[in-house]
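Researcher: Sequence recovery benchmark, item below. Answer with residues only.
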């Protein structure tokens, strides 16, 4: 009786940790610092999806900014759904934006799991920014950051 329960827990865990089809980090000035997508043949489509999501991010930031002042939530939630994907957003205090695109067919996904992915991404981004050899504003070339992102991406078999 314990073995099947253990298998379901690990299956659920594996499914929920590898679910993004695209992860992007966008600078304050709206140019990409990092963008990675799976499968790679859809890369241009994901660049477009991320770019169009920035308008929604700006709208949400300005709407929240008016109502709360500077005490704003970093997690912006679902920016917009498309037929194939759901696009989620997060903005840091320094106005760097994170965008995660998830396949719409992934219905098991919960809001707290997306929040957790953004927190992990933000922590890794902070580590990159603290590296004395990284110039702020340059694209992200960190193997550690790449590793964190790879762990969040859908694994293509």
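Model:
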């Amino acid at each position: 009786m314990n073995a099947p329960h253990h298998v379901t827990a690990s299956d659920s865990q594996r499914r929920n940790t590898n679910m993004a089809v695209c992860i992007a980090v966008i600078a304050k000035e709206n140019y990409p610092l990092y963008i990675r997508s799976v499968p790679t043949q859809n890369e241009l489509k994901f660049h477009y999806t991320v770019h169009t999501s920035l308008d929604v991010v700006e709208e949400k930031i300005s709407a929240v900014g008016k109502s709360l002042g500077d005490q704003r939530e970093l997690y912006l939630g679902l920016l917009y759904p498309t037929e194939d994907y759901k696009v989620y957003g997060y903005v840091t205090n320094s106005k760097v934006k994170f965008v995660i695109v998830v396949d719409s067919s992934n219905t098991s996904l919960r809001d707290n799991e997306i929040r957790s992915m953004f927190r992990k991404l933000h922590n890794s981004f902070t580590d990159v920014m603290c590296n004395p050899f990284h110039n702020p504003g340059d694209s992200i070339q960190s193997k550690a950051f790449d590793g964190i992102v790879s762990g969040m991406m859908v694994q293509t078999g």
